[in-house]
């Protein structure tokens, strides 16, 4: 969660967040206000990350607030993306970002001792993120095509994989994503949750594989795609594993 | 509701959102209807079969080909143009519009807007470097006489200029002011042959009302004597949907929108599409083009929307997919947009300053509010530059020299809009590049 917050903080501080774009370009607020909001968000996210890294139960209430703020910022980012029309799939920004939004908020609830509906909320968020990414994969989202092609093709002059092959791979990925999105709602399978956490890590890290270290913020903000399914894995794992 | 029922509802909601194609409209974004264009002073209150919203479009082979397009509010059966070399009216020929259709209306527009019709005349067999006059005709209703110049021959050594700009999607008053500046520059630069548009014409590419307003405003690029500068279009990230192809007659193949434009004096321009896969078929095409064109190119140029070396945001996929090819084949100059700022990078090779590297300019200022660039980025340091202002760049080719002049209007610090719309334009940047090996 702290990593996700730091990734979002970097974008707000050094680039321009989608909230900044929405305020300045579309809603015609002055640039200083939009920029100041970005800076405030960056500082706030760094502080939230620091709080979350503090061990000890005495900090639970503070950590809960920090986690909730991170979730709310991701909600603001996704809402701005959804309104901005900046990509072909921006109309799906909110359900695609469900894990980024919901995981910190659920963490906040857990830290406050209110964990009765957390598992259900997490399952829905995981399902939503995987379902939307699966749908985009089946639609051959160009960004996903490029992630595959840039990761699999070494710069040898003759690519190993062409675009047609990447489209077939995306068909498979999309079908699997939709399948596991459905299954996670009905099965309490640690293997399933473990696979989803692993796939979340692979797809997050593929940003750096494609674009180099510069893309680390994109990897960091997707750490919730690992954390959400991993939390389900830990909830569903056979208790004996720990006891042994 | 039972728990399983609630689960099903939430899943259905998630999947429903995933499959929806909603396109919310922001407050204040409602564009003018087609008959409310009096503010431009160009088309006025036109209705029916009057040809309006004329455009000349170049893609490949502008020495011999061009598309001339216009719109009508009424479905018309006889759509043609009369064209003749300037001063030789007796040599006129009539060319019937080969491609006619109805602009696609968004579902939300259907109840408010009557259909509007596009007409494309695909001209072939033009003589290079000739000024043509033409007159549009839809069911007997004629436009005024307009003109454009075909590109001089590939082997011509005469000087010529391109005007480059991008990002006209919001800030409609400023967009019109920039179009008027473009017309002023076109009048002042008799050797200007085309307008290279870096994309993001409008805010939501699926909304025809926004396109029709843009097309009406684009008429302001026409000079007082009727000269129309052909447009070489690029697709921006906001230009999604079918309307882009309907407005520009599908530049490049459908679904691709990337192509090669042969310009005079050994200048070649590759237009790329950052809305589709960068690293797939487009990269293969780009590699083949660069390999074939470099040996015979005096200047090798590329243009696309989302930048590899941005002044504001993070780099796009172009950096990983295309920049290595640009460097391997010594591309000279790249036009980028999207960031809403002025920039000219240092020459870049291997992600560092190298006098033999590629220069990237941009980054979009045809009306959209201007941002403050991140001038601390290494590639914007001197001898590169960055700034803030609504801008056009004239790119003039003469012998072994290429001159870049970026000019426009200073902005109001808070809003990023043109500070003094009635004021004179200012020059933000001027630089001369020497052809590789000619120093």
Describe the structure.
The complex is a heterodimer of chains A (244) and B (439). Chain A has helices spanning 2-14, 18-26, 31-52, 60-84, 93-96, 98-111, 118-138, 142-152, 163-186, 190-211, 216-221, 224-236, 240-243. With 244 residues, chain A is mainly α. In chain A, helix 2 (18-26) packs antiparallel against helix 3. Chain B is an alpha+beta fold. Chain B starts with a helix and ends in a 5-residue tail after the last strand. Chains A and B meet through helix 2, helix 3, helix 7, helix 8 and helix 9 of A and helix 1, helix 5 and helix 6 of B.
The portion of residues forming beta strands of chain A comes to under 5%
For the largest interface, the chains and their residue counts are: A-B, 51 and 52 residues
The helix count of chain B comes to: 7
For this structure, the quaternary state is heterodimer
Based on CA atoms alone, the radius of gyration of chain A comes out at 19 Å
Helix content of chain A: over 70%
Shape of chain B from CA axes? globular
Largest sheet geometry of chain A: none
Number of domains of chain A: 2
Identify the overall geometry of chain A: globular
Main beta sheet of chain B:
7 strands, mixed
Query: What class do helices, strands and sheet pairing of chain A give?
Result: mainly alpha
Strand content of chain B: 25-35%
Q: Structural class from helices and strands of chain B?
A: alpha+beta
Provide the low-confidence segments of chain A as ranges. none
End-to-end Cα distance of chain B: 78 Å
In terms of per-residue confidence, which ranges of chain B show pLDDT below 50 for 5 or more consecutive residues?
1-45
């Amino acid at each position: 969660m702290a990593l996700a917050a730091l990734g979002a903080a970097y974008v707000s501080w050094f680039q321009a967040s989608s909230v900044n774009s929405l305020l300045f370009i579309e809603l015609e607020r002055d640039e200083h206000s939009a920029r100041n909001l970005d800076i405030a968000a960056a500082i706030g996210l760094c502080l939230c990350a620091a709080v979350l890294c503090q061990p000890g139960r005495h900090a639970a209430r503070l950590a809960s607030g920090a986690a909730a703020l991170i979730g709310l910022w991701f909600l603001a980012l996704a809402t701005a993306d959804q309104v901005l029309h900046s990509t072909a799939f921006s109309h799906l920004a909110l359900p695609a970002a469900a894990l980024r939004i919901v995981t910190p908020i659920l963490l906040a609830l857990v830290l406050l001792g209110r964990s009765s509906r957390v598992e259900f909320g997490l399952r829905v968020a995981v399902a939503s993120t995987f379902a939307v990414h699966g749908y985009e994969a089946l639609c051959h989202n160009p960004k996903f095509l490029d992630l595959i092609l840039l990761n699999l093709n070494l710069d040898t002059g003759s690519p190993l994989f062409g675009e047609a092959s990447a489209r077939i791979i995306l068909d498979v990925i999309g079908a699997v994503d939709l399948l596991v999105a459905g299954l996670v709602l009905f099965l309490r399978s640690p293997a399933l949750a473990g696979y989803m956490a692993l796939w979340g890590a692979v797809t997050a890290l593929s940003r750096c594989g494609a674009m180099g270290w510069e893309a680390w913020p994109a990897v960091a903000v997707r750490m919730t795609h690992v954390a959400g399914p991993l939390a389900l894995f830990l909830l569903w794992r056979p208790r004996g594993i720990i006891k042994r | 509701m039972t728990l399983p029922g609630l689960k099903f509802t939430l899943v259905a909601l998630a999947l429903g959102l995933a499959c929806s194609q909603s396109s919310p409209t922001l407050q204040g974004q409602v564009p003018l209807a087609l008959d409310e264009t009096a503010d431009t002073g160009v088309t006025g209150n036109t209705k029916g079969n009057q040809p309006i919203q004329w455009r000349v479009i170049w893609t490949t082979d502008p020495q011999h080909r061009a598309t001339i397009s216009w719109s009508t509010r009424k479905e018309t059966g006889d759509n043609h143009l009369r064209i003749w070399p300037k001063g030789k009216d007796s040599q006129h020929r009539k060319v019937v519009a080969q491609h006619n259709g109805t602009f696609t209306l968004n579902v939300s527009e259907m109840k408010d807007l009557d259909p509007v019709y596009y007409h494309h005349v695909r001209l072939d067999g033009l003589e290079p470097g000739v000024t043509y006059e033409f007159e549009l005709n839809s069911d007997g209703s004629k436009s005024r006489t307009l003109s454009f110049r075909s590109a001089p021959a590939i082997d011509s050594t005469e000087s010529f200029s391109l005007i480059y700009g991008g990002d006209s999607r919001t800030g409609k008053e400023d967009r019109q002011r920039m179009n008027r500046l473009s017309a002023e520059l076109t009048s002042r630069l008799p050797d200007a042959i085309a307008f290279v548009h870096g994309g993001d014409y409008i805010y939501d590419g699926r909304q025809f009302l926004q396109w029709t307003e843009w097309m009406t405003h684009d008429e302001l690029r026409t000079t007082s004597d009727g000269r129309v500068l052909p447009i070489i279009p690029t697709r921006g990230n906001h230009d999604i949907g079918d309307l882009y192809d309907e407005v520009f007659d599908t530049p490049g193949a459908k679904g691709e929108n990337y192509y090669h434009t042969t310009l005079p004096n050994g200048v070649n321009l590759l237009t790329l599409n950052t809305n589709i896969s960068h690293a797939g078929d487009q990269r293969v095409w780009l590699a083949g083009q660069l390999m074939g064109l470099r040996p015979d190119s005096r200047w090798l140029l590329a243009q696309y929307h989302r930048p590899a070396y941005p002044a504001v945001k993070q780099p796009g996929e172009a950096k990983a997919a295309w920049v290595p090819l640009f460097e391997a084949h010594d591309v000279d100059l790249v036009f980028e947009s999207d960031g809403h700022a002025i920039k000219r990078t240092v020459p870049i090779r291997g992600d560092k300053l190298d006098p033999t590297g590629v220069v990237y300019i941009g980054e979009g200022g045809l009306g959209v509010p201007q941002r403050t660039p991140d001038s601390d980025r290494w590639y914007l340091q001197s001898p590169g530059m960055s700034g803030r202002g609504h801008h056009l760049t004239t790119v003039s080719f003469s012998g072994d020299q290429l001159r870049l002049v970026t000019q426009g209007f200073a902005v109001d610090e808070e809003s990023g809009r043109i500070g003094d719309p009635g004021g004179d334009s200012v020059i933000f940047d001027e630089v001369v590049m020497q052809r590789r090996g000619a120093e």
